[in-house]
Design brief:
This protein is of the alpha/beta class. 33% of the residues lie in helices and 22% in strands. It has a single domain, classed as P-loop containing nucleotide triphosphate hydrolases (Rossmann fold). The protein binds adenosine-5'-triphosphate and ribulose-5-phosphate (5RP).
C-alpha cells in the first residue's frame, strides 16, 4: 500500500482546525483517514498546567518529541500507541492505538514548530482568523463542550497571549496555505469571507481560468511569489456551484468523492453551512488527492522550499 498522505492543520485554539478537518474526513471517508489531534500530546493535565503557570501553547508543555516519532511511524504506515487527552475534563487518559490509513490528518497547536515536524507533512495549512473572531469562537466552543465559563475562557485567552505570539504565529511562515475567515460584510458565521494565501511551496490548482468567468467577486491577486484567493461570503448558490465545479474538473480522478457535502460547521450544538468554508476545504482536498495520486504512481509530491520560513506578505 502507498504511504499515507499527511495533512497538517495548525492554528491557535479555536481557530477552526477541527472544523476544516472534519469536512475533509467526511468526504474522504472515515475508513480512509487516520486522525491525530496533537492536543493528546500535552505533557500536563489542566490542573497541573494551572498550578505550574504554563500554557498548552508552550512547546515545553507538549511531548513534541513523541509526536514527531509517532508522525514518522504513521507516515511509514506503522501503527502507534498514542496518549489521550480528554477535553471534557482536562485529564490525561489511557493510551489508544492509532492505525494508519490512506490519509493522516493532524491538527495541532505546534505541528510546524520544528523542521522535522514540518517535513513530515505533505500539505501544511495555517488558520489565521482575526483575534476577535477566534475569541468568540473559542468562548462558545469551550463553554458548550469543554465545561468552561465565559470568564474562565477570557482569562485563559489573556494568559496565553504571549505564548501565542512567541510560538503559534511564527508557524504561518511554513504553511502552504494560509486561511483567514473574516466577518467583513456580515457577522453571520455562514457568510464569512475567506482569504486563502496560496504559497509557492506547493503547486496549486490553476485557478486563473476561473476568473475569466464572473464568479461574483472572487478574486485572485498576486502577492510576490504567492497568490491570494479572495472568496466573498455572499456568493449565490449558482456562483458557488460554478466555482466548485471548476475545481472538481481539475481533479477528475477523484470524481467519486464529488457527491458528499463540504462546508458544515457547528455553533454550539447547532449545525450550519458555509460556502466559503466549503471552497477552502475543496482546495485542501485537491492537494490531498493529487498527492495521493502521485504517491500511488510511485512518485513523491513536489515541494519547493523556497518560501519555507519566509514570512508571507500581509494580506
Ligand atoms: N470557517 C468557519 N466558519 C464559521 N465558524 C467557524 C469556522 N471555523 C471555526 N468556526 C467556529 O469556531 C469553533 C471552534 O472551531 P474548532 O473547534 O474547529 O477550532 P480548533 O482550532 O479545532 O480548536 P482547538 O484547537 O481549541 O481544539 C467552531 O465550533 C465553530 O463554531
Ligand atoms: O489550546 C487548546 C487546543 O485545543 C486547548 O485549550 C488545550 O488543548 C487544553 O485543553 P483544555 O482547555 O480542554 O484543557
Amino acid at each position: 500500500m502507498p504511504r499515507p498522505i499527511v495533512l497538517g492543520v495548525v492554528g491557535d485554539s479555536g481557530a477552526g482546525k477541527t472544523t476544516l478537518t472534519r469536512g475533509l474526513i467526511r468526504v474522504l471517508g472515515d475508513e480512509h483517514v487516520a486522525r491525530l489531534n496533537a492536543d493528546d500530546y500535552h505533557r500536563y493535565d489542566r490542573r497541573m498546567r494551572r498550578e505550574m503557570g504554563i500554557t498548552p501553547l508552550h512547546p515545553e508543555c507538549n511531548h513534541l518529541d513523541i509526536l514527531t516519532q509517532h508522525l514518522l511511524h504513521l507516515r511509514r504506515g506503522e501503527p502507534v500507541l498514542k496518549p489521550v487527552y480528554d477535553h471534557r475534563d482536562g485529564t490525561l487518559r489511557a493510551p489508544a492505538y492509532l492505525r494508519p490509513a490512506r490519509f493522516l490528518c493532524v491538527e495541532g497547536l505546534l505541528s510546524f514548530h520544528t523542521e522535522t515536524l514540518r517535513s513530515a507533512h505533505d500539505v501544511r495549512v495555517f488558520l489565521a482568523p482575526p483575534e476577535d473572531l477566534r475569541r468568540g469562537w473559542k468562548v462558545t466552543r469551550d463553554c458548550t463542550r469543554r465545561q468552561y465559563t465565559t470568564d474562565e475562557v477570557l482569562r485563559e485567552l489573556d494568559r496565553r497571549e504571549a505564548d501565542a505570539i512567541a510560538y503559534i504565529a511564527p508557524q504561518r511562515a511554513y504553511a502552504d496555505l494560509i486561511v483567514t475567515f473574516t466577518a467583513s460584510r456580515t457577522d453571520d458565521p455562514s457568510h464569512l469571507d475567506a482569504d486563502v494565501l496560496l504559497r509557492d511551496s506547493l503547486e496549486h490548482p490553476d485557478l486563473t481560468p476561473l476568473l475569466e468567468v464572473d464568479h461574483g467577486g472572487v478574486a485572485l491577486v498576486r502577492r510576490g511569489r504567492d497568490l491570494l484567493l479572495r472568496i466573498p461570503g455572499d456568493l449565490t448558490a449558482a456562483q458557488v456551484t460554478g466555482l466548485e465545479e471548476s475545481v472538481w474538473d481539475r481533479m477528475s480522478f477523484a470524481s467519486h468523492l464529488r457527491a458528499r457535502r463540504l462546508g458544515e460547521f457547528t455553533v454550539g450544538t447547532s449545525l450550519r453551512r458555509s460556502n466559503s468554508l466549503a471552497i477552502v476545504q475543496l482546495i485542501v482536498l485537491y492537494h490531498l488527492v493529487t498527492a495521493r495520486a502521485t504517491v500511488a504512481l510511485g512518485g513523491d509530491p513536489v515541494r519547493s522550499e523556497w518560501s519555507a520560513g519566509v514570512a508571507p506578505e500581509p494580506t
